[in-house]
């Protein structure tokens, strides 16, 4: 009776690795592709493992140093080490529970030492601590931790409201400071503009009075040369009276009233002339002091 060889073949998918046993003991790893084993020699394909990257989301609730309850959402990316796939196959029955337990342990050992603000500022440090611990532990079981992300940090709802109120109050305070500075600048600029306007108005009035004085002087000189025997005082009186009546005329034309009462008589006219002349002389003297 001749020997009969019975060989089985099977195909291992890409990104997977097979575990072959012989008489119930681990024998070798089967690479992706076509593989052969001999059942008569006690060989069999016990199982396969995926070497793709797996992702595990872990939510941890713990308390900070300043007694704030906070939830941290951590995302762990891991994969089976190809050359150590037998350890991953035999050592751990549920790798996700093992990873989750170590994440809980590391996070709850670090976060209670930190304030809430420090957790937000140093979340990468927490993720790094978790990564170092998982790499040390899970590497012995045939798993490699590719990356860890601290996805979210969620404080208690009342704490979030308080943080938002503090932030809003700080921003309102800053806005009030800026608004006060803006009002101050506007008031200063307004005061400077009013001062400049008053200064320019004073310069204009002074120049106007100077022009009036120069014109009167020129009229007096021309009239004195053309009318023999007329003194400068008489000419000045005549000009003052003429301007006075011109002013009365303009007042009557521009006013809503139709009747204007003025004193009448030679004595009153002389008094008016003296008052106008004295006023113009004082104005001219004031203009020279201003300049």
From TrEMBL:
Q: InterPro entries of this UniProt entry?
A: Band7/mec-2_domain, Band_7, Band_7/SPFH_dom_sf
Domain of life, per the record?
Answer: Eukaryota
Q: Which residues form the Band domain?
A: 5-167
Pfam families on file: Band_7 (PF01145)
Q: What is this protein called?
A: Band 7 domain-containing protein
Q: Which organism is it from?
A: Anisodus acutangulus
Q: Give the lineage.
A: Eukaryota, Viridiplantae, Streptophyta, Embryophyta, Tracheophyta
């Amino acid at each position: 009776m001749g020997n009969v060889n019975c060989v089985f073949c099977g195909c291992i998918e890409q990104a997977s690795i097979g575990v072959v046993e012989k008489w119930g003991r681990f024998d070798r790893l089967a690479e992706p592709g076509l593989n052969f084993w001999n059942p008569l020699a006690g060989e069999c394909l016990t199982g396969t493992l995926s070497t793709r990257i797996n992702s595990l989301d872990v939510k941890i609730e713990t308390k900070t140093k300043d007694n704030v309850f906070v939830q941290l959402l951590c995302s762990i990316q891991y994969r089976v080490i190809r050359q150590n796939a037998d350890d991953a196959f035999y050592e751990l029955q549920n790798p996700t529970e093992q990873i989750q337990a170590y994440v809980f342990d590391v996070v709850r050992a670090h976060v209670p030492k930190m304030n809430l603000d420090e957790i937000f500022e140093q979340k990468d440090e927490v993720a790094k601590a978790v990564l170092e611990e998982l790499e040390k532990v899970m590497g012995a079981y045939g798993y490699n931790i590719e990356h860890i992300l601290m996805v979210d940090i969620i404080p208690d709802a009342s704490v979030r409201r308080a943080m938002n109120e503090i932030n809003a109050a700080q921003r309102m305070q800053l806005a009030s400071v800026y608004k006060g500075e803006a009002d101050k600048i506007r008031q200063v600029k307004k005061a400077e503009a009013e001062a400049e306007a008053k200064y320019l108005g004073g310069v204009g009035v002074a120049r106007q009075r100077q022009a009036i004085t120069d014109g009167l002087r020129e009229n007096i000189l021309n009239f004195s040369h053309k009318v023999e025997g007329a003194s400068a005082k008489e000419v000045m009186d005549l000009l003052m009276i003429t301007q006075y009546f011109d002013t009365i005329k303009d007042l009557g034309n521009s006013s809503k009233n139709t009747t204007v009462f003025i004193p009448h008589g030679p004595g009153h006219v002389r008094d008016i002339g003296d008052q106008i002349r004295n006023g113009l002389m004082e104005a001219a003297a004031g203009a020279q002091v201003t300049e």
